[in-house]
Amino acid sequence: QLHRDIVELQWQTAQRASAAALGYIDGFHEHLETLAFTRTMKSMDAEAQSIDLEALLRIEVEAKEASVVSAGGRETARIVRDTPAGIGVGELRDRSAEPCFQKAIAGQDCHSQLALSVEGEPLLVMTSPIFRDAQVVGVVRVVADFQRLVETLSSIQLGSSGIVYVVDSQGRVLAHPDASRISSGSNLFARPAVAQVAKGRPV
Fold this sequence. Notes:
Layout: H1 2-36, H2 39-43, H3 46-59, E1 63-70, E2 75-83, E3 86-89, H4 99-105, E4 110-111, E5 115-116, E6 122-132, E7 135-145, H5 147-154, E8 157-158, E9 162-163, E10 166-167, E11 173-175, H6 180-183, H7 192-198
Antiparallel strand pairs: 1-2, 1-7, 2-3, 4-6, 5-6, 6-7, 8-9, 10-11
């Protein structure tokens, strides 16, 4: 009975951590949806869009870059944080092959899998469709740095020795109290429990 109680406590803690992550993403999406429905975004006026994208980056401190993508998949405006001027215009790119662009241009919100950048930052791509007269005319796209979120999750403890860590869909460690697990590129799919949960089945 004690073992079952411990397992149940661990599962409930993991569920709370997961709910916190999803709540964070949902909140970000609400902001994107609000932006996507503004007159500026619907106008597809690149100069006006750039001003709104810059404002978004100033409000959403986790956002590293924001862009508007046309229905054809090419960015019409792109603002990037950490430019020499702090926040500035970025090179326009083709996003047509990205799964989240394809989903958003079909009329649905999307967020990618959490993945590590070359610099080791946990990044997430989020998109929302821009509607005009019931037609999707473009997509708002944001790349967000979720370092603060994963640090919060990985600081959660289970009892005196249990920990919470975050892995992606391939089993790669994205957040762990032991930073060497991240820098070494550890893969935890060799652990049956991790592989099972990643498939959507409780342990």
